[in-house]
Design a protein that fits this description.
heterodimer, A: alpha/beta, Rossmann fold, 3 domains, six-stranded mixed sheet, 24 strands, 32% helix, 28% strand, B: mainly alpha, globular
């Protein structure tokens, strides 16, 4: 019988109108990796916020026992003192500061009243070594990749002498290599006696790393599975998460033959004006009517930049060469409004940052790109707007109290559906989806895939940018693989395997034109 | 997260619960009205009723006028997350320009459009710097503050205060609408009263229509009792104000001008595509741009409109003082910004209504007016206004966070 480092008993946390946690019991053994899974809104993050003191003692019911002692955390600093560190999905680093300044931010090593920088740098190098990051500690955070930043966060936690590390979706923004690195690091830390709690949507990782898997649904613990006793399958976890079996994560599409080429890009090269660096090199690609074409690759391969440069080029890149053809005409867009008018739509990678207007309601967001369709002259017809928004609410099953509900209050999946509704209303012939299912739960993913299938069946064409290999292989007809701003390969989905795609996605320095 | 339907409130729960929910849900709006009432009550008592006299209320309207039009323009600027610090001196300078042109013998009907056009030019100049050259608005308009302050001193340097004698121009901030020819028989202003009755009917009509629409789409509406109470008090308020004016000398031209500006701007903001674009940019600039909104063009237009209203404000002020002075416009920008924020414009942009901004302007100007009546020292007035301003924003930020 192992000792429990943490026991949470009968935790109940209520928000006005919602019981976010309902009598949750959660136990973590000393030295294990404990994965917490569940659909969005199941209560995972709330539970971790209760644990870390973000929701102070007294705002919830139940008790927290750490190493046998009852704790009453009133502030995050209280839980830090007990050796608990949380690493959030949105990283909290200062991009303009160096690695060592970031690691010791808030608990600086002092020599009297001044900071002892020499000692700081020395300690920083030690802790960087522990997380396997071989970098100069003076490097600025803004020069690091997402994976490296994640490691800096962990280094920061380790520098505080942490016993219990909580990671909220640590691999959501990482490519497969970086994810694997991170998981290996967690295994090493486990050897060193650090206990970890990991929240994740990536079940493949969960089954590979977890010692125990706790599944939450609607604020209640469904079950705690011991993964050391027996191998747990992804299917089993999904069944517990959604309370029903999902036969196939990727719905089948009726065998429709893609039609004529509706979009073509020839020798598309783009330079970033500030850094004077060419970021896209002679990109060629074609999309047929009724086809889903995937753009696979690692984070930072230049796929989002490509989409932005096509879609009205708001980033102000310099397009140094190339031609774009849409529906048989050569086009060039100076502003997204021109791209929209010609039948192009772009669902952004980060719906909160640049996709939706969170403080406005559903109808406002849905009507925005094609307001002119609802307007007589300059005046918007609000009746038609409400009718239209309600149609999309029903057809896409956007779960919202009404179309005048603020988008920011909806769950991730429903926000993503709102994003899609907004662009479907603009009636595009070419829809670019940038990471269409990032950060949304299994059920909503399935609905979005089904919708994509319906759209191509109706003759729309889709370019899907995705870093999730299984999604790429499961959903596309054809895929291009990008690496460092160059298309390194094109495969029909029948010929594609994970290994082939990864090999092309990691190809560097070859075949770079111009 | 499960979202329980909140619509059911109106059918199932008791009136008391609804009133409570309504108050909590719109606490920001109600707080503003309550503040206004409190200010009125305090000053009425402190001045032994002088504050509430017809004469002083008309005075208050005329005083509020030039700040109100500035504040309406500022509301748009603040919604799209910009700022314009130059408006006070732009107003002062353009007010002086109008006085000079009148002094040179220009026709007043030529002076007014010319000065308004100058305002647009000033706005376009600042908007150009902000959108095309990408100089932050804070810096652009701070520089504008220097420039127009300098220009104001320059044009008034030779003459000092410029007296305005043109009767028509003076009417802008001192005159009243004419009465109907057969209205003179009554001892009140008949046309003013008729306008008031028309306003009440129009208000009731539009509110009822709006409510029907909401019900048709099953949106949350208040219960009939509350709705009727709201309509009755609104009508009483309008008629009360109208009665005070009608029993004095009628509706001041300033009130008419502000009302016209308010109606136009409210229509543009709430009903047109341009208005949607303004809220979209304020809510999330990047998302707006990627939704096909030409952010730069909208921003430029909003600055141009600010320039136009600054010109109007400057003329109203010049008319009110019957002269242009070298210190005209000092601190107007602060009153305008404070009015907008007190009126509920969000400090992070994307939220705000010009109708509420007018209430904000009334709060600010009632304070000024009341404290002037009491003979409070001007330095102390600034402190009080500053405190009310920061209180409103702090309140906004804390209640906004809970939402």
């Amino acid at each position: 019988m192992t000792d429990y480092i943490l026991e949470m008993k009968g935790i109940t946390k209520e928000f006005p109108g919602v019981k976010a946690l309902d009598d949750v019991g959660f136990k973590v053994r000393q030295g294990e990796i404990h994965c917490l899974v569940g659909e969005n809104g199941a209560g995972k993050s709330t539970l971790m916020k209760v644990l870390s003191g973000v929701y102070p003692f007294g705002t919830y019911r139940g008790e927290i026992v750490i190493n046998g002692e009852i704790q009453q955390f009133r502030h995050i600093s209280d839980s830090e003192r007990q050796g608990i560190a949380i690493i959030y999905q949105e990283l909290a680093l200062f991009p303009e500061l160096s690695i060592y300044e970031n690691i010791f931010m808030g608990h600086e090593i002092m020599n009297g009243i001044v900071i002892d920088w020499n000692e700081t740098i020395l300690q920083a190098s030690k802790v960087l070594e522990r997380v396997g990051l071989e970098l100069d500690p003076a490097t600025k955070i803004k020069d690091l990749g997402v994976g490296q930043r994640q490691l800096v966060e962990i280094a920061k936690a380790l520098s505080k002498d942490v016993h219990l590390l909580i990671l909220d979706e640590p691999t959501a923004a990482l490519n497969e290599d970086d994810s694997e690195n991170l998981l290996n690091l967690l295994r090493e830390l486990k050897e060193q006696g650090v206990t970890s709690i990991m929240i994740s949507h990536k079940l493949k990782e969960v089954v590979s790393i977890a010692d125990t898997i706790t599944v939450l649904r609607d604020g209640k613990v469904v079950c705690s599975l011991d993964a050391q006793e027996r191998q747990i399958s992804e299917q089993e976890i999904i069944r517990h998460m959604v309370g029903r079996e999902i036969e196939n994560i990727y719905p089948k599409r009726e065998g429709i033959e893609p039609g004529e080429v509706i979009f073509e890009l020839k020798n598309w090269s783009v330079t970033d004006r500030t850094s004077r660096r060419e970021i896209l090199h002679s990109v060629n690609l074609q999309v047929r009517r009724g086809e889903i074409v995937a753009l696979a690759g690692l984070m930072g391969a230049g796929r989002t930049e490509l989409a932005l440069s096509l879609f009205g080029n708001v980033s102000g890149y310099e397009i140094t060469s190339g031609e774009m053809y849409l529906n048989g005409k050569q086009v060039q867009f100076k502003h997204p409004s021109e791209a929209i008018a010609q039948g192009m739509a772009y669902v952004t990678e980060d719906r909160k940052a640049n996709g939706l207007i969170l403080i406005q309601d559903v109808k406002f967001n849905v009507s925005l790109p094609a307001l002119s369709k609802l307007a007589r002259g300059l005046v918007v017809n609000e009746h038609e707007e409400i009718i239209m928004a309600n149609e999309y609410r029903e057809s896409l099953d956007i779960r919202t109290p009404s179309v005048q509900t603020m988008v920011g209050t909806l769950s991730g999946g429903n926000q993503q559906k709102t994003s899609l509704a907004k662009w479907l209303f603009a009636e595009p012939s070419l829809l670019i989806l940038d990471e269409p299912t990032r950060g949304i739960d299994v059920g909503a993913k399935f609905e979005i895939y089904t919708l994509m299938n319906q759209l191509v069946e109706q003759g729309m064409s889709i370019i899907m940018i995705s870093s999730e290999l299984l999604e790429v292989l499961g959903m596309s007809d054809r895929l291009y693989i990008m690496s460092e701003g160059t298309i390194t390969g094109e495969l029909a989905v029948e010929d594609a395997t994970e290994e082939k795609v990864m090999a092309m996605a990691t190809k560097t320095g070859e075949g770079v034109a111009g | 997260m499960k979202t329980e339907p909140v619509n059911a409130v109106s059918q199932t729960d008791s009136l008391g619960t609804e009133v409570k929910a309504l108050l909590l849900g719109n606490i920001r709006d109600y707080a503003m009205y309550i503040a206004l009432v409190v200010i009125f009550v305090i000053f009425t008592i402190a001045t032994k009723g002088l504050f509430l006299s017809s004469r002083n209320l008309i005075n208050l309207v005329n005083q509020t006028g030039y700040v109100a039009v500035l504040a309406i323009g500022m509301t748009l600027i603040l919604i799209i997350r910009q700022i314009d610090l130059s408006v006070g001196f732009v107003a002062g300078f353009l007010g002086a320009v109008s006085a000079i042109l009148l002094m040179k013998g220009w026709n007043v009907w030529l002076v007014i459009p010319t000065v308004l056009l100058c305002g647009i030019v000033v706005g376009v100049y600042q908007g150009f710097l902000v959108t095309k050259i990408k100089v932050p608005a804070f810096v652009t308009t701070l520089a504008g503050m220097f420039i127009f302050r300098g220009l104001l001193s320059l044009v008034t340097a030779g003459t000092g205060t410029i007296i305005v004698r043109n009767r028509t121009f003076l009417q802008l901030s001192n005159g009243y609408i004419p009465d109907l020819s057969w209205g003179a028989r009554f001892d009140f202003h008949l046309l003013t009263l008729l306008i008031g009755i028309f306003l009440v009917i129009a208000t009731i009509y539009s509110q009822v229509r709006n409510r029907r629409t909401m019900q048709r789409y099953n949106f949350q509406t208040t219960s009939t009792v509350i709705f009727v109470t709201k309509l009755v008090s609104l009508s009483a308020l309008i008629m009360g104000i109208i009665w005070i004016m009608a029993s004095y000398r009628g509706l001041p031209w300033t009130a008419v001008i502000v009302a016209v500006v308010l109606v136009i701007y409210n229509f543009v903001l709430t009903k047109t595509r341009f208005g949607r674009h303004i809220y979209a940019i304020g809510g999330n600039t990047e998302a707006a741009e990627l939704s096909g909104i030409k952010v730069d063009r909208v921003t430029l237009l909003v600055f141009a409109s600010m320039g136009l209203l600054a010109a109007l404000s400057g003329m109203l002020y010049t008319s009110r003082l019957a002269s242009a002075t070298p210190t005209a416009g000092v601190g107007f920008e602060l009153d305008a910004i404070a009015s907008s924020y007190i009126g509920g414009v969000s400090v992070s942009g994307g939220v705000g209504r010009v109708t509420n901004t007018i209430i904000g302007a009334l709060v600010i100007m009632s304070l000024t007016n009341g404290m002037n009546l009491l003979g409070v020292d001007i330095s102390f007035q600034y402190v009080v206004k500053g405190l009310i301003f920061i209180l409103a924003v702090a309140f906004d930020v804390t209640t906004g966070n809970r939402r």
